[in-house]
Amino acid sequence: MKQVTLKDKTFKVSIPEERIQRVIIEIANRINEDYKGEDTPLFISILNGAFMFTADIFKHINFNCEVSFLKFSSYEGTATTGKVKQLIGINEEIKDRKVIVLEDIVDTGITLEQILEQLKSFEPANVKIATLLFKPDAYKKDLKIDYIGLEVPNEFIVGYGLDYDGLGRNLVDIYTLSE
Ligand code: IMP
Ligand code: MG
Questions:
Q1: Which of 2, 13, 32, 131 has its CA 20 to 30 A from that of 178?
Q2: Neighbours of ion ligand 2 (CB under 5 A)
Q3: Span 4-35, pLDDT tens digits
Q4: What pLDDT was estimated at residue 71?
Q5: Which ligand 1 atom minimizes the distance to the CA of 109?
Q6: Domain boundaries in the chain?
Q7: Could you identify the atom of ligand 1 that is nearest to the CA of residue 50?
Q8: Is 34 a known active-site residue?
Q9: What's the rounded Cα separation, in Å, for the pair 163 and 75?
Q10: How far is CA 34 from CA 30, 37, 48, 50, 125, in A?
């Protein structure tokens, strides 16, 4: 069993590279079908986690499209709702465009909700969500997720863009904590 140690924790492979790549092709095929003939949709990749998923899925997209990268600033304001994070990297190119958000993982859905909320003010024609991974048992929102690669248990995972304390993003497989 392939294992890796990152800082104080040891992880074992839970989703091998081949499975990840097969799932990515499945999502790409669905998107290709849904956006056939559309005028230059815009993919928006959420950094850092989605960089690897974005690179791999993009190779399988067969219509004319653009890609742009957004990141949440680490700035945390004080609002009654708690932490307020701002998306940075947004510009006017979003207005009236068909947008497909690319996420590595949707866990509670809090991040996704913030992304959708902030994108809305830039008046896209519509926004769809594609996530490689989804934790149904952790999900607290009822926002529709249009494309889900794999549902995973409510356990911490790392690799393929996902990190443990900054490490492990370079792993080609996805790992879970090893007991
Ligand atoms: P949410 O806001 O709870 O949906 O969390 C979304 C973000 O948390 C993702 O974009 C990831 O960056 C991070 N995250 C959630 N679950 C994991 C995990 O199991 N491993 C690593 N990062 C995770
Ligand atoms: Mg992320």
A1: 131
A2: 49, 104
A3: 999 999 999 999 999 999 999 999 999 999 99
A4: 92
A5: 4
A6: 17-153
A7: 10
A8: no
A9: 20
A10: 6, 9, 26, 21, 15
